[in-house]
Amino acid sequence: MEYQSEEQLYKALDAAFKVKLRLIKKEYPYIKKINIWNYLKINKWAKAFNLTISEMVNDIICIDIKKVDLYTKNLMKVEEK
């Protein structure tokens, strides 16, 4: 299936984000799905070719959350300035 917009794709991945957030909520309650989305979009998916929805779901579930944590904290620092 092809998605007509980034927003449509983001919504299609919602269940995977919810699972990941449930798994990390005690240790990283401040990380939101948009943080995971943006991290993967910039650091992994932008370099990928012929990416499938199942590969994206796998990326969300298997992501090294410490990298997303660092990304999110750096974003928060920039926004504070």
Structure description:
The chain has 81 residues and is mostly helical. The protein is 68% helix and 0% strand. The protein contains five helices and no strands. Helix 2 packs parallel to helix 4. The termini are far apart. The model has no long low-confidence stretch (mean pLDDT 94).
Count, helices? 5
The helix/strand series, from N terminus to C terminus, equals HHHHH
Radius of gyration: 13 Å
Total DSSP E strands:
0
Shape: globular
Q: Roughly what fraction of the amino acids lie in strands? A: under 5%
Low-confidence stretches: none
Average residue pLDDT: 94
Structural class comes to mainly alpha
Distance between the termini: 42 Å
- Helix content range: 55-70%
Strand count, sense and barrel status of the largest sheet are: none
Which key features would you list for this structure?
81 residues, mainly alpha, 5 helices, 68% helix, 0% strand
Strand-helix topology:
Elements lengths: L5 H7 L1 H11 L8 H11 L9 H10 L2 H16 L1
Concise synopsis of the structure shown:
Helix content is 68%, strand content 0%. By secondary structure, it is mainly alpha-helical.
